[in-house]
User: Which sequence fits this backbone?
């Protein structure tokens, strides 16, 4: 009897130990499995259907505009799933590692324009060449957009989604107080002489305008507006880094320093909390480089109080700021289907829809000429005919060579301008700091 | 005999985990031999159990540590001897100690080291001093002491992201609450983020806010372990409250203080989240790198400039630096405990 009791006791002990061991084993193997088994998505098996995964960053707009649902209705058997990472910085870090390891990739991946040179350069092999697929029509895109996504061997690794042709955003009420014209055509004419004319209007504004309002937000914004109007900025056609000798950088730097030293800036850094709140407080009268997508940003930050006060005029040298591409990684299981979906998502009709629903300006010239884009107006910006303003700007965007360190160089220089604009450093010292900082950042 | 052995080997017989003494049953000769073998086998298994089970039970930690601690450490060390791009982490080009020697002439590295040190001092010293004082106050009998203790720990439980966001808004140049309050008393607005000292002060204040409560509770726990009769006899000898704090509390807290200093130093050396979020998510630590810590410089080098090899070298230098600091503290603690022993 006693031994019987004992034996049951032991057996429960043994079994609980077995459970503990099994648990440990599953935990550890599960852990190891989690490291290795992160394959690219796959068939869901049900009815031979295919699941396509799309990896994007931020509020990319495809899902929000209902494009996935529309495609699924057109193609029964295809299910689309989206993975979204909020910040492009996190998204691109993840995408890089996954491309390098060729695993964990979605069937379609978004690429921001700041990262496209890296993809056409070092990582080009990881992407499908759209040129190999005969039914993909690439003729409807703006030529420079296709050029940006083409690698040195002529492979097209990305299809353009949106782009950011720039205008100049300004506050009509402040312009009126300063005795400057308020009508967007007249303001455009006022600036048409170039960035010197823009700064001359700034001097008038400083003299006559409201005392506690700056003419523009940031020296860095001024720099970007000027530098982007040139063909050659940080890289030459051969892909060499030339920012130190580039006419574009020198001109833009001098104009930005001039604006700062004349007290025309609000000393802001763009895309910071302070900048956002400066919009809400109406602390400045113009934004020198105001791409199509920034209208929504200004509307959100300036709020209802700013409705009808903001307007948008032609820039003397329109350029492109931002915009994205989508590409199909070679590692995907359903490349054919993914290419078809990518072509459909970037086709003119879908780009036009993305514009009307989400405000992303199309990179397809066909879509730009479509009536719903051409006749679009923006109620918040005094019913400005943004379709025509940005359409005209889009035609004048220079085709600039982009290099892999585009973002690093641009941020290095705007940081230097911040030292002048906020810290009161001399422009010469600040430029030396830019160069030594970039030498360090770019050294392999 | 085997049963005896088993009993002797069992460390936890009270818990019922080991087979207790058993009475050998009468069997035939061959039966007894089988029984003896069975017992022998069982006892061997039992010995193994006792000897190896503890290792099996702690193995998950070590497996995790090997996967997420040791392997990255060694791999980082290997990468630091190579030129590696983040875009192609598998293509490594041997450069020997080049990534380390270049740090010697790297002004940005030295700036970051200096910033890490000054922010570390600015945050750790007031933090621990305040924690000690607060713990002393909380150690008194008072109403709602539990409430105060929980309130102390609330900042520690706040996510660093939320805290840093709120603080960077408070320290805003044009619309921040701190400058608004300074304006009320007639002080000009400070551009917190662009100044060297102002930005480091701001970052330190986030660290202080988050960690003071945590250290307070550690000190409080240590204070409550100090025997009450020490205070009693001190007060009988006519020691004031301050003298009691100075001559009873502080000496008893020495090991605890050393512990918090070590932990805070390690935290300060690795400081990353607070300056990153204070700078709006940029790793540059301000336009002039005025509050760029070593952690931020490492991140910027690896993930923004995409030089993984150089970033790895910075990581290893930080690691070696911490080992040196650890050795200094170890020597210090030996010295403290020896001199403490002499005193006692």
Assistant:
């Amino acid at each position: 009897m006693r031994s019987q009791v004992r034996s049951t006791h032991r057996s429960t002990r043994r079994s609980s130990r077995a459970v503990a061991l099994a648990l440990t084993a599953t935990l550890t193997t599960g852990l190891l499995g989690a490291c290795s088994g992160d394959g690219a998505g796959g068939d869901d098996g049900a009815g031979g259907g295919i699941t396509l995964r799309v990896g994007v960053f931020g509020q990319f707009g495809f899902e929000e505009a209902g494009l996935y649902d529309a495609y699924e209705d057109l193609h029964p058997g295809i299910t689309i799933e989206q993975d979204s990472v909020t910040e492009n910085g996190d998204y691109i870090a993840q995408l890089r590692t996954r491309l390098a390891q060729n695993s964990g990739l979605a069937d379609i991946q978004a690429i921001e324009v700041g990262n496209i040179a890296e993809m056409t350069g070092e990582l080009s092999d990881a992407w499908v060449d759209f040129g190999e697929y005969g039914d993909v029509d690439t003729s409807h895109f703006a030529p420079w957009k296709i050029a940006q996504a083409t690698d040195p061997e002529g492979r097209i690794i990305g299809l353009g989604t949106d782009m950011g042709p720039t205008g100049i955003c300004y506050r009509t009420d402040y312009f009126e107080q300063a005795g400057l014209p308020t009508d967007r055509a007249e303001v455009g004419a006022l600036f048409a002489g170039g960035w010197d004319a823009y700064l001359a209007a700034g001097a008038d504004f400083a003299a006559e305008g409201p005392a506690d309002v700056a003419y523009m937000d940031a020296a860095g914004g001024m720099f970007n507006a000027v530098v982007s109007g040139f063909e050659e900025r940080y890289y030459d056609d051969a892909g060499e880094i030339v920012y130190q000798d580039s006419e574009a950088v020198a001109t833009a730097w001098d104009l930005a320093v001039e604006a700062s030293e004349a007290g025309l800036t609000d000393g802001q850094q763009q895309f910071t909390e302070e900048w956002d709140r400066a919009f809400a407080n109406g602390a400045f009268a113009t934004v020198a480089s105001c791409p199509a997508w920034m209208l929504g940003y200004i509307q959100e930050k300036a709020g209802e109080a700013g409705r009808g006060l903001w307007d948008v005029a032609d820039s003397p040298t329109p350029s492109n700021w931002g915009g994205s591409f989508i590409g199909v990684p070679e590692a995907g299981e359903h490349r054919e289907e993914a290419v078809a979906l990518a072509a459909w998502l970037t086709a003119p009709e879908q780009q036009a829809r993305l514009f009307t629903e989400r405000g992303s300006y199309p990179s397809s010239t066909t879509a730009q000429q479509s009536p719903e884009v051409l006749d679009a107006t923006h109620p918040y910006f005094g019913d400005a005919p943004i379709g025509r303003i940005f359409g005209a700007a889009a035609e004048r965007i220079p085709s600039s060579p982009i290099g892999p360190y585009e973002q690093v160089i641009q941020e290095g220089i705007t940081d230097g301008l911040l030292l002048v604009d906020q810290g009161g450093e001399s422009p010469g010292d600040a430029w030396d700091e830019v160069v030594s900082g970039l030498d360090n950042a770019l050294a392999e | 005999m085997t049963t005896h052995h088993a009993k002797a080997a069992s460390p936890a017989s009270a818990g019922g985990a080991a087979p207790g003494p058993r009475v050998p049953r009468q069997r035939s000769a061959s039966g007894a031999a089988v029984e003896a073998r069975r017992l022998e086998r069982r006892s061997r298994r039992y010995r193994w159990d006792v000897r190896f089970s503890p290792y099996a039970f702690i193995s998950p930690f070590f497996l995790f540590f090997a996967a997420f601690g040791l392997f990255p450490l060694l791999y980082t060390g290997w990468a630091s001897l190579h030129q590696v791009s983040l875009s192609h982490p598998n293509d490594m080009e041997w450069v020997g100690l080049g990534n380390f020697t270049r740090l010697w002439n790297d002004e940005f590295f030295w700036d970051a080291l200096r910033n890490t040190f000054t922010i570390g001092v600015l945050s750790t010293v007031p933090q621990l001093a305040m924690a000690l004082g607060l713990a002393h106050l909380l150690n008194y009998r008072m109403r709602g002491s539990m409430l105060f203790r929980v309130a102390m720990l609330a900042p520690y439980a706040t996510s660093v992201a939320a805290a840093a966001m709120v603080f960077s808004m408070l320290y805003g140049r044009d619309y921040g609450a701190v400058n608004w309050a300074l304006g009320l008393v007639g002080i000009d607005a400070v551009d917190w983020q662009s100044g060297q000292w102002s930005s480091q002060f701001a970052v330190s204040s986030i660290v202080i806010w988050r960690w003071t409560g945590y250290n307070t509770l550690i000190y409080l726990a240590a204070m409550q372990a100090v025997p009450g009769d020490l205070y009693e006899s001190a007060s009988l000898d006519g020691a004031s409250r301050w003298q009691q704090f100075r001559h009873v509390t502080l000496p008893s807290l020495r090991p605890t203080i050393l512990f918090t200093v070590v932990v805070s130093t390690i935290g300060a050396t690795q400081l990353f989240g607070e300056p990153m979020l204070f700078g709006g998510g940029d790793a540059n630590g301000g336009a002039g790198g005025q509050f760029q810590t070593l952690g931020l410089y490492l991140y910027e080098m690896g993930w923004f400039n995409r030089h993984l090899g150089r970033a790895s070298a910075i990581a290893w230098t930080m690691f070696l630096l911490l080992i040196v600091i650890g050795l200094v503290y170890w020597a210090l603690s030996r010295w403290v405990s020896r001199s403490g022993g002499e005193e006692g």
About this structure: The first strand of chain A starts at residue 50 and ends at 57. The CA atoms of residues 213 and 283 of chain A lie 5 Å apart.
